Predict the 3D structure of the following.
Amino acid sequence: MLCLTLTGKSEQECLQQIEKSRGSIDLVEIRLDLLGHVSADTVRNIVTGSRLPSILTYRRKRDGGAYDGGERQRLSSLCELVACGVTYIDIEEDVKRPELEQKARELGVKIIRSCHDLEKVPSDLYARIVKLKKRGDVAKIAVTVTCVEDLMKLFGARRELQSLKEKVIVGMGEFGIPSRILYKRTGSLFTFTSVDGKGASGHLSPRIMDGLYHARSVNEDTKIFGIIGNPVMHTSSPRIHNPGFHLVGLNAIYVPFLVDEVRSFFQLADLLSIKGFSVTVPHKQAVLPYLGKISREVKLIGSCNTVLRHAMMWKGVNTDFYGFLDPIRPLLDASRIRSAVVVGAGGAARSVVWALRNHYCRVTILNRTIERARDLAAQTGSSYGPLDDHAALESADLIVQTTSAGMPPLEEIDPLEGYSFSKEQIVYDLVYKPRYTRLLSRAAEAGCQIIFGSQMLIAQGVLQFESFTGFNYPEGLDAELL
Ligand code: ATR
């Protein structure tokens, strides 16, 4: 089940949030601490208007809520409002108020015993859950996940606490997001979402949890794929793979994992039987020692963006290489591109330079830091120069921009500011958000053929999808959604 935590300040706002999410949620949590005015009428109207089971919660500041008044007042409000037709009441671990529990029981309201750790995952996590369950119908623990190893403890609960059915385990913070999307793999009965993400740290919206991830459909047979990176939540890859799985009717899910240590992630991948994953910055080199097999491109470039389970080992391939080539392949085949300038000398530039060199293209690498351009040029048999090397730029059939200039927060930066494109040139910017960078807008105005970063993003994602699933990517992907 997906539970919508209501973050509206008024009854009307809460009802609007419910209507917006209808169909994607099974349960609502009425958060008295977030409501501007707490009254029996408000609670009753939300319960009736929602036409869904509901949880009554009055969260204190120290547990991550907004209530900072007296405890007596809080508990007496709960005692009164538990009679407003709710299905569950959330009572924190430390609360000893037998009359509240008794009243709930008389009314047939189930008790969720909850506990929150806003700093860490407690070392006695499983024992705490067992203890909570003894004092309520449902045990709920929300803990702060600060590394991949923590996340493993949450997923380990499914096996360790197999017999304890009615529990909810929530990993807060960005490291905890997979425990929300894959809540069923923690053995949880439900998980929380909020329309604006303001319900708690790491909340995703119902639209994302249901519409993108189909989190409720995860079952024993669901194949798990993902992406590792740091940061990772900005990535568009889930918007390529999840709709792809859906369109071809595969029982699979693709989840973003914020990863600090690659070593821990490989352990987690075994625990969750992850079938394959994408790799983004800064882990493209760090995964190499864990791979039993690598493709020719990974060996050449020294970086891997796709890891697949292959027999008893992990295999690494690099779809950036072919993804980059995909939009320009006809131009290369027609010998329309014989020389290229690559702007930048980082990880992204490496794949691009190798892909071009492999297609017999003359390459000049221009970079802000000349030493990096020189090193990459020496390794790849290319030339190099500074960003204002206009002679190199003028003689290039293709100019490829591979740096982060043009991408927020550097959206105002055009690394080739002083250079005027000639209309015969093809200009390719790897930045995909925004679609038109300053550099690409100038190239379009000059009449150049332009190639968008999203074209490479989609091409590398499609190739990845095919390596993951063995299926051709289906028709129907909406590039505008990326
Ligand atoms: P990635 O793996 O995404 O390519 P990287 O290895 O950190 O990331 O490389 C970033 C590239 O963007 C480098 O070529 C960097 O230039 P320097 O080598 O001089 O650092 C380039 N870059 C980043 N910000 C830039 C800016 N404001 N102007 C020009 N180049 C920039």
User: Anything to note?
Assistant: The two ends are 27 Å apart (CA to CA). The chain has 18 helices and 20 strands. The chain has a mean pLDDT of 96. Residues 281, 344-349, 367-369, 372, 402-405, 410, 413, 415 surround 2'-monophosphoadenosine-5'-diphosphate (CB under 6 Å).
